[in-house]
Specification:
Elements: H1 6-59, E1 64-67, E2 73-78, E3 80-82, E4 85-87, H2 90-93, E5 100-105, H3 115-120, E6 124-127, E7 132-135, E8 144-145, E9 151-156, E10 161-164
Parallel strand pairs: 7-10
Antiparallel strand pairs: 1-9, 2-5, 2-8, 3-4, 5-6, 9-10
């Protein structure tokens, strides 16, 4: 009698395919993680360069400056007063700065209370010589998103430094 043994290989081949798919998925995850880490480091360097450019413009009393990178990040000034509470990111307060300017990525914490403060710790910050206010519309203090690059910012000087879009 001849027995059909094709069914015995089916389970073995299925197991090999499942293991191969899991291994390929793990490798894809690893590659995307490495790429993301490198991209974050690159964007942080671009943020530091943009912040240096902005800081130089303020120190030389320029009235306009262009910011080129990183697109999608935010610019905020500190301290930020909200309902009687004064907020300052740790990256500024730990250095004893009274006024600072930060360029940072928007993260999941941005839209929670103190979210911009927490996100600023993941970006680049610089000490400002006096109180600085960032405003998207020359109104009240609010973070400004780098949407379109180059982003032209106007700088007004007086009792406070005002940076507007």
């Amino acid at each position: 009698m001849i027995k059909n043994k094709k069914g015995f290989l089916l389970a073995e081949e299925t197991l090999k395919i499942i293991v191969a798919v899991i291994a390929i998925g793990f490798l894809a995850y690893l590659l995307f993680s490495i790429y993301g880490a490198n991209q974050d480091a690159k964007n942080l360097e671009l943020a530091k360069a943009s912040l240096d450019s902005l800081e130089t413009a303020i120190n030389t009393q320029q009235t306009e400056v262009m910011i080129y990178n990183p697109k999608g990040w935010w610019i905020a000034s500190w301290p930020y007063s909200d309902e009687g509470t004064t907020l300052m990111p740790n990256s500024c307060s730990n250095l004893g700065w009274e006024n600072c300017l930060c360029i940072f990525p928007a993260g999941w914490t941005t839209f929670r209370p103190n979210g911009y403060k927490q996100d600023s710790d993941n970006g680049a910050c610089a000490q400002m010589p006096k109180e600085t206010i960032v405003s998207p519309d020359s109104g009240s203090q609010a973070p400004l998103k780098i949407n379109k690059v180059p982003l032209t910012l106007k700088i007004n000087y007086g009792d406070k430094i005002t940076i507007i879009n």
